[in-house]
Amino acid sequence: NTNFDVTQPKHQERMERWKWVLDLLGYYNEDARISSNSALLYHSCVNQAAHPSFYRALDLPTDFRAQQALLMVHVWIVHRRLISTKSSGKNDPGKVLQEALFDRLWDDTIFRIRHQNVSELTVNKHLGEVQQRCFSQCVAFDQHFNAAGSKTVLNDAISRHVLNVEPNVKPKQAALLASYILRELKSIQKASTDDLESGAISWGLPLDAGQRTDAVATDDDYDADLIGQKYGDWRSALDIRGKKYFWNLTTRMSAWEKPTKAGQ
Predict the structure, then answer these.
(1) Mean per-residue pLDDT, 32-61
(2) Which pLDDT does position 229 carry in this prediction?
(3) I need a surface site. Which of 37, 152, 154, 194 has the fewest CB within 10 A?
(4) What pLDDT, on a 0 to 100 scale, did the predictor assign at position 177?
(5) Quick one: which H or E segment has residue 105?
(6) Rounded to the nearest 5°, which phi and psi values hold at 227?
């Protein structure tokens, strides 16, 4: 599980400083490059989806299903951008990166399933069920484009697959997330190939202050408990066993205990 926050300039500078060593180690060969790029791109989605304000404004629990659904929203947004990049060559870079991105998603999903303390013998079964839900969500969201950009279709998909309710039960929340998704779809089209490959996506605010349907939550909400959430200079992550730990964005030190406000 790669710990890297590409939004931190010091991390980009560190990578550039040691580029010659990484070249010698084969870090920049094609397979390694795709693996690294997909990790950066995937963690950009994880970090954006782990803002507590989403859950406050959309009246969502912070359980496995809701976190996976919101993460899938952001992976789908990136997916739509990648499939819009067509290449006349044999190897379509957008398709290759998209496939690697989904590989990252499923690997991380296994860690998230293990975090639920399920039997290891049932992990693959649960993974299959989660994959089916994720694919169904993507198909439902794609219908927005098949229906000539119908907001009703998108709102219905959000209600069923993210809010976990029937359409029109939470119309304000569905409209709020739909507005966010449409804004981000438009914004990410401006991202260059280099931006995508480096994970440097300029995500907008998770929720605009004027659109919030609930009390404003800060990005560093220490009462929330989301995978990938930022706590001051720290972020949470999962190891391969599904055990949560916290790593410092500046020092890259890690700890098992959740940081406190005083520990920023």
Answers:
(1) 91
(2) 94
(3) 194
(4) 96
(5) helix 93-114
(6) -75, 125
**136 neighbors 161 (Cβ within 8 angstroms):** yes
Q: Which residues contact 180 (CB under 8 A, 6 or more apart)?
A: 204, 206, 207
Cβ-based burial of 31 (10 A; exposed 0-12, middle 13-18, buried ≥19):
exposed
With H, G, I as helix, E, B as strand and everything else as coil, classify residue 152: helix
262: exposed, middle or buried (C-beta count within 10 Å: 0-12, 13-18, 19+)? exposed
Token pair listed for 198:
């480096």
pLDDT tens by residue, 83-123 = 887 665 556 778 889 999 999 999 999 999 999 999 999 99
The rounded distance, in Å, linking the Cα atoms of 115 and 109 is 10
**What is the rounded distance in angstroms from the CA atom of residue 39 to the CA atom of residue 125?**
25
The answer to whether 138 and 79 are in contact (CB under 8 A) is: yes
* Residues β-bridged to residue 254: 247
**Contact by Cβ (8 Å): 4, 40:** yes
**Helical (H) or strand (E) element with 23:** helix 19-24
User: What's the residue count for the chain?
Assistant: 264
DSSP assignments along 38-104, one per residue: HHHHHHHHHHHHT-HHHHHHHT---SHHHHHHHHHHHHHHHHHHHHT---SSSS-HHHHHHHHHHHH
Name the residue type at position 177: L
Residues 6+ apart with CB under 8 A from 7: 44, 47, 200
